[in-house]
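Posting for a labmate who doesn't have an account.
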Amino acid sequence: MIALVKRNVVDLLGIALSGAVMSCVYDARRAAPLNASYAMRVDTQTVALALRFLSTVVPAASGRMRAWRARAQLIPDPALRREALDSLRRKAFHVHGGCVFATFLPLERAAQFVDFVAAFETAVDYLDNLCDRIGTQDEADFRALHESLVDAITPDAALHPYFRQRDRDDGGYLNELVMRSQRGCADCPSFETIRPGMLDVTRRYCELQALKHLAPGERERRCAFEFNAVAPDLAWWEGAAASGSTMATFALLYSAISGGASAERAAAVQAAYFPYFTALHILLDYFVDQPEDAAHDELNFVACYPSPEAAYEGMQRIARIASQRIAALPEPDAHLFALRAMCGYYCTRPTLSKSARSAALALMRSAGVDVDPHPLLKLYARMARTRCRVL
């Protein structure tokens, strides 16, 4: 374990609690409070893992994102440059969350993993901004842009004119994200074993992105048709949510880079993540974004439930199934850590309304989060801003 983890845990958490400057990715001063009875003693293994993630992986990911930010500033088109920079600023936690598996890797492999996630997730978030903010509700345009993600996980793929449906391009920024992702896949041991699973979940993601940005009314009809049969016990909006997460992609890469993945192991990881873990991921994201999405008339899958009570019950059920499937993996520690970190982060977001906080508490418990995450999240806010080079 690295030196920072060996240092006194109380001292590290004290640094977090005393910090005056908080990152925009998590404002701990406004975080949704938990019931005092929720706080429990943290086992030392969980604290050690959390501190390794926060003190090593998060700063490394932030460093990669600073490099991509410098590149994004060179985009010649002002509107595309604005959206690239905005996605890097507002969605940094997506990259940090995807990098969580690096916590369990040796330093060299962790650096390789972080490089891939930083490039691929930055491309994902950039494209989402392009479709949301300066899109034309043109399905052909959305499909052309998202070809880049399939190419990004296909090391031998040639680049395509992803902006061919638009009268502008970004001066090669998206191409560079694709090529960096391709390099990460090419360097991954036993990549060919996980390639089919990564292609499957990525194509599902691209299909969702092509449909969910369409005009209101049409987007709901198309998504209901496309995602109604993802699983027998999932409604169409839950199946759509399951298709909108990149966590299965990163879990598959981790399974290969951590020691080589057999076809059986890759299939088990994919089945453990899709559709329940991935559905929970996106439903949690939409759960906290409901006011913002309503203000911008954007499709929100949590709002598709017939009532808030039905939404809370549905998400808790999915959380329980996700936890059970992850726990059943042969080596579940990294995956359980990812699940609990994800739930702890989303369920204490400052944007949660007072009425949603009791539901957030129940969701965390359904996913097996048995500690108050606030102290570690405050440390996350500080470490996301650090400039130290650790990987």
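Reply:
Got it, the structure tokens are right above this. The first helix runs from residue 3 to 6.
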